[in-house]
Amino acid sequence: MIKTIIHNNVQLAIIIKHNYKKDGIEFFTPNEYSQQLAYMSHKKGKKIDAHIHNKVTRDVHLTQEVLVIRKGKLRVDFYSQDKIYLESTILEKGDVILLASGGHGFEALEDLEMIEIKQGPYLGEEDKTRFEHISNNKLEIK
């Protein structure tokens, strides 16, 4: 199952649920994203050509991050670029999310292990603008 979070025709996130399956390769992101997200399924014996990646200059203007949930449950709260709360969703073990734009906050609902992948280097406070979380009584989980 694939879920997309869209606000004002802007994609905020792509979620690949742990039970998603498809033969072959599927890219979920457009070429203009600075992070590319794909699902790949190959039969035993499939060979992928050995390769190196060429040095290519890319301009990155917005950090996009991918989270891979290895254990537990994580609530993701989505916000517009103007810091307005939109909705929340729950991720569980095996789920993957690309946070493409807008704002987001998190709460670990169970003991959590996850992997984060994003462009580097991390620049600390220069990298993000923090703001107040939505209160629990205003959550809308979809």
Describe the fold and architecture.
- This protein is mostly beta strands and 142 residues long.
- The protein has a single domain, classed as Jelly Rolls (Sandwich), CATH 2.60.120.
- It is 0% helix and 42% strand.
- The chain has no helices and ten strands.
- The chain has strands at 2-7, 10-16, 24-27, 38-41, 65-71, 73-79, 85-92, 96-99, 103-108, 113-118.
- The chain has a five-stranded antiparallel sheet with strand order 1-2-8-5-10, with no helix packed on it.
- Strand 6 and strand 7 form a beta hairpin.
- It starts with a strand and ends in a 24-residue tail after the last strand.
- The model has no long low-confidence stretch (mean pLDDT 94).
- It comes from Arcobacter venerupis.
- InterPro entries: RmlC_Cupin_sf.
- This is Cupin.
